[in-house]
Automatic annotation (TrEMBL):
Classification via NCBIfam families: small_GTP (TIGR00231)
Name this polypeptide is given: small monomeric GTPase
Assigned protein family: Belongs to the small GTPase superfamily. Rab family.
Keyword Translocase: no
Cofactor annotation: Mg(2+)
GO molecular function ontology, one term from the record: metal ion binding
Pfam families: Ras (PF00071)
Region (Disordered): 26-61
GO BP: any one term: protein transport
InterPro entries in UniProt: P-loop_NTPase, Small_GTP-bd, Small_GTPase, Small_GTPase_Rab
């Protein structure tokens, strides 16, 4: 269940930033976006997130317009860009500056269409800070897919990926879809982790890999499309050959090696 003790911390955070806004809205413009975009049939998140096992129906309610449902968690050290990745994917925007660490966990929905199949992604943005780990662990078990991020300008966040993969092995389902993302690939000279290092690590753990930029949008759609395809393949195990699990990168994205598995 949602930990009520976190609410106090959230309130502290809200006081610090001088705004009374739910966690998921911390980087968003004041006016809430409409939810009726054609590719976006999902509901806005609650300020009280559901328990880890709610909204778990693989096919969703019959009256909702999607074919496959999947819970996707964004994981990785604090500051690697998980929230920015979600905001870029969901809203197509990047709000630089005013970095405020996520408190607890929250989610947003987006329906994407891949290969003619509508996939509702319920995307959970987790807090990278160590003190929230016990909260996020409770949500691993129900996740269908995990996007594990590091920051290409922060070697420590890359070195910690092995520890994250260890946690995933401990707490997530064995068949969870995992994708490694080297975020902030727009950062040029500040880069501390070479693309090849990310590729090598992904190959070692047999997970897909891309470098992304929440700032420019590079590979953000492609990463979620890859996850959506993998979820479709999982939901249709009787005829997996019918579905292309591979991501289809654009020319610019090809060297990002999706998927390395
Ligand atoms: N240059 C660049 N900066 C980015 C990118 N993505 C995120 N940032 C910046 O990195 C900082 C942290 O981003 P967040 O999305 O809040 O990081 P987070 O992983 O959610 O952090 P926690 O909530 O603490 O776990 C912010 O200042 C962002 O503006 C990116 O792709 N490129």
């Amino acid at each position: 269940m949602w930990n009520p003790n976190l609410d106090n911390r959230q309130m502290e955070k809200r006081v610090v930033v001088g705004r009374v806004r739910p966690t998921w809205a911390r980087n968003l413009p004041e006016v809430r976006d409409d939810d009726d975009k054609s590719e976006d049939l999902g509901a806005m998140p609650h300020s009280d997130p559901p328990s880890p096992s709610e909204h778990w129906d693989q096919h969703g309610k019959p009256d909702e317009k999607y074919d496959v449902f999947g819970k996707v968690m964004l994981l990785g050290d604090s500051g690697v860009g998980k929230t920015c990745m979600l905001v870029r994917f969901r809203d197509g925007t990047f709000l630089a500056g005013n970095y405020i660490s996520t408190v607890g966990i929250d989610f947003r929905n987006k329906v994407v269409t891949v290969d003619g199949i509508k996939v509702k992604l319920q995307i959970w943005d987790t807090a990278g800070q160590e003190r929230f780990r016990s909260v996020t662990h409770a949500y691993y078990r129900d996740a269908h897919a995990l996007l594990l991020l590091y920051d290409v300008t922060n070697k420590t966040s890359f070195d910690n990926i092995r520890a994250w993969l260890g946690e995933i092995r401990e707490y997530a389902q064995d068949d969870v879809v995992i994708m490694l993302l080297g975020n902030k690939s727009d950062s040029g000279l500040e880069r501390a982790v070479r693309r090849e290092e990310g590729q090598r690590l992904a190959r070692e753990y047999q997970v897909a890999f891309m470098e992304t930029s929440a700032k420019t949008g590079l590979n953000v759609e492609a990463a979620f499309a890859h996850v959506a395809r993998a979820l479709i393949a999982k939901a249709n195990p009787v005829d997996p050959s019918r579905l292309a699990v591979r991501a289809h990168p654009t020319q610019e994205q090809r060297s990002s090696c999706p998927p390395c598995s």
